[in-house]
Structure formats: C-alpha cells, structure tokens
Amino acid sequence: MAALVVPPAVAVILLPFRAGLPNASVALVLVVIVVAVAANGNRPAGALAAISAALWFDFFFTQPYERFAITKSVDIQTAILLLVVGLAVSQLAARARRLEVITITDAGYLAQIHDTAELAQSAKSPDTVVDHVTVQLTKLLHLRGCRFEYGTLIGHPPRLEQDGTVVWGRRHWDVDRLGLPDEEVELRTFGNGRFYGRFMLDPTPGTIPPLQARLVAVTLADQVGAALDTASM
C-alpha cells in the first residue's frame, strides 16, 4: 500500500514549489522515498514505488502538466533516470534490510557457531568436530539424517551453496517455496581452499529451513573444514 500511496502524496506536497524547484531535485526526493519504501518493505514494494514515483513525476512535474505525457527531452531523460535509479536502489535497499535481519535475529544460531568454534580449537581429533556438526546440521535443518563423506565427489546431487541457495544441475532450486529436494543434498567442506569432504543431508519432506539456518549450516561446514585443515598440517 505504501508503495502506491507515498510517492503521489509526496508529489502533491512538492506541487506548490513546482515553479521554483528543478525537476532534478524533485526526482532526487522521489528516489529517497523509493528507498524508504523498499527498506521497510521488500523488493516488489520497492519496484512498485519506483514505477509509481516515475509516473507521478511525469504527471505533476513535466509539461504538459496533469497528463501522462512528456514533451521535453530533458524531462524524458530525468523520468527514465528516476525509474532506473529507483528500481536499482530499491533492490539494494531491500537486500540490505534482508541481510540485516539474517545477521541479528537469532542468538541461538550464533551460539551454535560459537560452540563449534570452541570445540574445533579444543578437540584432539577433527572427527569429534565432524560428529558434532553432523548432529547440529540434523537439528538445524530438520533432517531425517546426515553423514559425512571424506574426500569424495561422486554423482551430481543437489548442492547447498555458500549463499544458502541450492543448485541442482544447472538450475537453482526454490528452497523458500519447495523446501530442500527430496533426496540427499551435499554441503561441501573446504579448509584453506582445499576440499576435504562433504556432508550429505537427508531432508525431511515438507520442511522449509529458512535462509538464516542454511547460512549457519554453511558456516558450520566451514568450521569443520578449518579443523580438518589444521589436523592435516
């Protein structure tokens, strides 16, 4: 709703200053409004706000006024730039907001990472860390099972990537809508750039682990890689 209401409302507020306010300044104010909408909403809201801002800029601030038409080339350029910049910045603002939520929302996730880091430093064998993370991943992602394979890359199963997405062959799997694939998913483990093995995740059908949990899972696998790398020295 804000994406549709706020841009025209701000345009109406600026309308009395139309004669003395450069259109570039008006466009800049509207871009700021688009960013505010995106930062407090999501990508579609930001995109809708950008389109709305461009339309109402055309309607109120380009000649002929009160018509969706533009006659001056400079106004056409300004309107296009408003739309393009508004769309781009709104996507960045929405992404920044999403990443902020991922970073701060769950102290329990941070505790798991901290516990594993401490174990990796104190354990006499990296196998202890592997077993610990296997249990953590099972609970974290609500798996039916989880196992670790040392130094093997057999087959082409779906793969949990560093950014929390899942790639299956050449396509991305929509985890947020479909959950993890109903077959084993690999989570590769690297230490200092060297491949050491992979966790094979056996998902529970119907469960959808959130992105935050998937990113924590990747972090835990990286800690295992660090422990294995240290042990190999």
Automatic annotation (TrEMBL):
<keyword id="KW-0067">ATP-binding</keyword>
<keyword id="KW-0902">Two-component regulatory system</keyword>
<feature type="domain" description="Sensor protein KdpD transmembrane">
    <location>
        <begin position="2"/>
        <end position="99"/>
    </location>
</feature>
<keyword id="KW-0812">Transmembrane</keyword>
<keyword id="KW-1133">Transmembrane helix</keyword>
<dbReference type="InterPro" id="IPR038318">
    <property type="entry name" value="KdpD_sf"/>
</dbReference>
<keyword id="KW-0418">Kinase</keyword>
<dbReference type="InterPro" id="IPR025201">
    <property type="entry name" value="KdpD_TM"/>
</dbReference>
<protein>
    <submittedName>
        <fullName>DUF4118 domain-containing protein</fullName>
    </submittedName>
</protein>
<keyword id="KW-0547">Nucleotide-binding</keyword>
<dbReference type="Pfam" id="PF13493">
    <property type="entry name" value="DUF4118"/>
</dbReference>
<feature type="transmembrane region" description="Helical">
    <location>
        <begin position="46"/>
        <end position="64"/>
    </location>
</feature>
<keyword id="KW-0472">Membrane</keyword>
<keyword id="KW-0808">Transferase</keyword>
<feature type="transmembrane region" description="Helical">
    <location>
        <begin position="20"/>
        <end position="39"/>
    </location>
</feature>
<keyword id="KW-0597">Phosphoprotein</keyword>
<feature type="transmembrane region" description="Helical">
    <location>
        <begin position="76"/>
        <end position="94"/>
    </location>
</feature>
